[in-house]
Inverse folding.
């Protein structure tokens, strides 16, 4: 039975999130048992950690802003780092959401990295979102670029 395009997009997007989570674990980050208050607990323990699907504020529409990953590191990310994963393998609408994503991140208090891959974006969409690197949007990486950045000890 063939999966719908939406189901396939969710599956491949989940694979990108699992890639990021595996990378975090390899770098010594521990998943927080309580995502609501994990930063305070990790600061006490002085250990790198992360939580998934954390509310980090409000969107530009004043609704809950939920991120894919929120990291804490006692030396590198003391105020937190958000990592967002966006995968688009075939033409679709994820690139239409880029401006909304960027404006929400600019409104957020957290420094953010976007990991973007799949190659199915409209012409110019990836270039545009990479040009929006300012304020607290630190980097826009594809998977290979993200891995190289991690390999250089940045995570």
């Amino acid at each position: 039975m063939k999966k719908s395009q939406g189901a396939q997009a969710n599956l491949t997007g989940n694979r990108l999130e699992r890639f990021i989570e595996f990378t975090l674990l390899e770098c010594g980050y521990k998943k927080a048992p309580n995502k609501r208050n994990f930063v305070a607990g990790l600061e006490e323990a002085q250990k790198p950690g992360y939580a998934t699907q954390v509310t980090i504020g409000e969107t530009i529409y004043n609704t809950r802003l939920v991120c894919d990953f929120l990291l804490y590191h006692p030396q590198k990310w003391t105020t937190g780092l958000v990592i967002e994963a966006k995968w688009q393998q075939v033409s679709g609408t994820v690139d239409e959401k880029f401006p909304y994503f960027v404006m929400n991140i600019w409104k957020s208090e957290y420094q953010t990295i976007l990991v973007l891959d799949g190659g199915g974006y409209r012409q110019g969409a990836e270039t545009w979102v990479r040009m929006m690197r300012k304020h607290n949007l630190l980097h826009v990486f594809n998977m290979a670029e993200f891995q190289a950045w991690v390999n250089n000890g940045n995570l």
